[in-house]
Amino acid sequence: MQSSLEKLRKFFRLEAENGYNDSAIIGGLAKMLDYWESDARNDGLKEETIQAVAGRLRDYSRLSPESRKVTLLGIWNRVKKEHPEVGDKETNQTKPQPASTPPEPPTQEVGSAPQPESPPQQKDAPKPKPAHRPAPARSESTPGAQSSQIPVALNASLTVLQGVGPRNAKTLEQLGLYTLEDMLYNFPRRYDDYSQLKPIKSLWYGEVVTVIGTVQSVTGRPIRGGKSHITEVVIGDGTGALRLSWFNQPWLTNRFKQGLAISVSGKIDQYLGRLVMNSPDWELVETENLHTNRIVPIYPLTAKITQKWLRTLMNQVINYWAPKLTDHLPESVRYAAKVPSLNTAILNIHFPETQDHLRLARERLAFDEIFFLQMGVLRQKRDWQSVTARIFDVPDEWLKSRTDALPFTLTSVQQKAVSDIVMDFGSGRPMNRLLQGDVGSGKTVVAAMAVEVIAHANAQSAVMAPTSILAEQHYRSLSQMLTNGEGGLSAEKIRLLIGDTPEAEKEEIRTGLADGSIKVVVGTHALIEGPVQFTDLQLAIVDEQHRFGVEQRSALREKGENLHLLVMTATPIPRSLALTVHGDLDISVMDEMPEGRQPIETHVLKPRERERAYTMIRAQVLDGRQAFIIYPLVEESEKIEARAAVKEHESLQAEVFRKLNVGLLHGRMKPAEKDEAMEKFRAKEYDILVATTVVEVGVDVPNATVMLIEGADRFGLAQLHQLRGRVGRGLEQSHCLLIPTNDDDTENERLLAMAESNDGFVLAERDLQQRGPGEFLGTRQSGYGSGLRMASITDLPLIEKARERAQALFGEDANLEKEEHKLLGEALDRFWGGSKGDVS
Ligand code: ADP
Ligand code: MG
């Protein structure tokens, strides 16, 4: 059949399945005319047919569903008359069918699920033909058949497929594919778009591309005096040649043969003026795809199966099952969100005909994820709010006397945050609050006030921080604050518990927490690792919460019963994102800095201008100020990082700052040594602290006014902003000097962004645009990322849309008890795998 008719058939069928709601194509069915008319002419369709189709489809959106059905049937009959080759066999199933068609009895394919697993409903289904496992093909499908039996059949194991015996099934299991449903959701890793391949001659340096070519030469040889090995392959595509190299994979040399067609994906680099690709992903090309001129899905593979075999299998499954899926998203939601049906989305995520279809399919599947995420988060919030918590009343005068005792006046946003917390304490419901404020906005003192309230009522608090340096600092400042004045705690009621606390002392602390003699414990993840038990933990605080995983945060929460929880972060994220990601929490935003702060002046210097940085440091020290000098992670190794810092420290002290005191702090030092170094810096015994990123979070030495970051191009934007936040914490003008590894890196976008803005929010937005949310959100740690395969949490419009929909549905039927929400409820449970929406 001509491809234009094929398309017509496909969209008509989708439209029928969707109940003639004009959603088979986004923007309406009439949109297909944009390209269909010319396709049809290319196919040699009669002009009258084309005009008849176009004429009737044009006003399609204005028709009622009933008239739409009539229209499509009419068009199809007309097409059939003019082009009998579309034939009856096909029209049987392509003929638009009324959406109200009662579920047809399961066909033989449904019955082909393995006997023992066959659900009772299938009892009267025709018996499967035992010897012949049908390879479901689209031409056999029955579009009207949507019934609740189908999800059950989707549980069928893969051996129901033709060509999959027990052995292949085992292999597929290695890919996490056990059932037909797993197959539907086995999304391609990427696509080769053969309609848009880039010829080698038009590649640009820096581009990330997929290129196809044939192997022209292969060499493998040792380099660096035999310490490493390089495989070099040159491929050509008729327009030019491209050199590829792989390191230390000597076996590759034998994998490439001259004349072999391969596709390589990666970043185009430059070496001695020529374009190269280093360690690209590569794959053998199935030559027939080259000519199909379409978008070909590439699936994750495992040993023993080929792309082609898996793709053929996927094709069978998708074509047959995708149209039969019952959409778990209620019509009303899908309408309001304007996303395609699940059938269309699953079909097009695997075998899209155009990039546009692929985009829409992605959008639908991404919508589902965010929607599920949001539903889970709302459910979590409701559950948390449904229990009671101890009430802590905070008398106004007492609170005032405590704030008056602080060395400064709280900013209005700090006051607001404190009063939010006080309100939560008095609510009888557990507090679940996120305190969000940029680096240096003064979150610690707010947390300290909360701890003080709880300690005053003789209950216990735990404060968890991501590094021992930060835990130590919190411990000191809390001790100072809480032991101060009349009615203050005695010092032994506040303790520090970190990984390196001596075992005997740990034991003592555990005992004190269990018998209630210790009221406040500050620490690292050591707080949750050991068998620490509290008699009466009422408040848990997690500082720099994005540094912890979901499990760690909930482990702390589990140490008490319905306790009050405060999590703090400097991660500035857009509101709609915050509401989704942290939707289970109430949020207090501190968007105002303490008075008298001056914006930090940030400069990017070339490596050869380093001396200027040193001059500035000397001048500041002469003025009584102090400086940090940060050395970067050279490789993913703390050891090497430490060594670099040690070496630099030596030469800085011996050569550059001979008359000044230069301290050293790195991750490989013992906690006691770290503590001593921090203390000496705090006490101004050191003028300069040479450090690694161990000072990145939380460290607070307000007298430090210079932050010099070496190898600054190696840091992420969020990290740079955090590091810079170590200065500018007092009233003095502070400076941040960024020196990249090479002169050219002074144009590095992140460094320029740093020089331009001091505002964490602005930088976060930039970072989101440039690289996705990973670092600012700490997605890797926070767990919810694992549920998101399609959705990018940078897609704010989509997030907003999904959030609004979820909220509306939650308001209408929170427990998804209505009949039309049942399927959604099941899908939601699957998404969360039994856990609640505890994402923050
Ligand atoms: P962060 O929000 O980054 O955790 P901190 O709580 O460490 O910030 O506070 C940064 C610095 O600001 C600290 O030195 C703290 O003592 C100081 N500070 C906090 N609140 C105020 C205030 N209201 N006025 C002046 N200084 C403040
Ligand atoms: Mg802090």
TrEMBL record:
A Gene Ontology molecular function term of the record: DNA binding
Q: Which UniProt keywords apply?
A: ATP-binding, DNA damage, DNA recombination, DNA repair, DNA-binding, Helicase, Hydrolase, Isomerase, Nucleotide-binding
Q: Which gene encodes it?
A: recG
Name the PROSITE patterns on file: HELICASE_ATP_BIND_1, HELICASE_CTER
Q: Name one Pfam family in it.
A: RecG_wedge
Record-listed E.C. numbers: 5.6.2.4
Q: Where is the composition biased (Basic and acidic residues)?
A: 83-92
Query: Where is coiled-coil annotated?
Result: none
Q: Which InterPro entries match?
A: ATP-dep_DNA_helicase_RecG (IPR004609), DEAD/DEAH_box_helicase_dom (IPR011545), Helicase_ATP-bd (IPR014001), Helicase_C-like (IPR001650), NA-bd_OB-fold (IPR012340), P-loop_NTPase (IPR027417), RecG/Mfd (IPR047112), RecG_dom3_C (IPR045562)
Catalysed reaction(s)? Couples ATP hydrolysis with the unwinding of duplex DNA by translocating in the 3'-5' direction; ATP + H2O = ADP + phosphate + H(+)
Task: Give the species.
Answer: Candidatus Desulfolinea nitratireducens
Q: Which GO terms describe its biological process?
A: DNA recombination; DNA repair
The UniProt annotation puts the region (Disordered) at 83-148
Task: Report the PANTHER family cross-referenced here.
Answer: ATP-DEPENDENT DNA HELICASE HOMOLOG RECG, CHLOROPLASTIC (PTHR47964:SF1)
UniProt feature, compositional bias: Polar residues: 139-148
The UniProt similarity line reads: Belongs to the helicase family. RecG subfamily.
Positions of the Helicase ATP-binding domain: 424-590
Q: Which SMART domains match?
A: DEXDc (SM00487), HELICc (SM00490)
Query: What biological function has been recorded for the protein in this entry?
Result: Plays a critical role in recombination and DNA repair. Helps process Holliday junction intermediates to mature products by catalyzing branch migration. Has replication fork regression activity, unwinds stalled or blocked replication forks to make a HJ that can be resolved. Has a DNA unwinding activity characteristic of a DNA helicase with 3'-5' polarity.
On whether Nucleotide-binding is a keyword of this UniProt record, the answer is yes
Q: Taking every annotated instance into account, which residue ranges of this chain make up the domain Helicase C-terminal?
A: 599-769
Top-level EC class as recorded in UniProt: isomerase
Which SUPFAM superfamilies would you find in this protein's record? Answer: Nucleic acid-binding proteins, P-loop containing nucleoside triphosphate hydrolases
**NCBIfam families found in the cross-reference section:** PRK10917.1-3 (NF008165), PRK10917.2-2 (NF008168), recG (TIGR00643)
Instruction: Identify this protein by name.
Output: ATP-dependent DNA helicase RecG
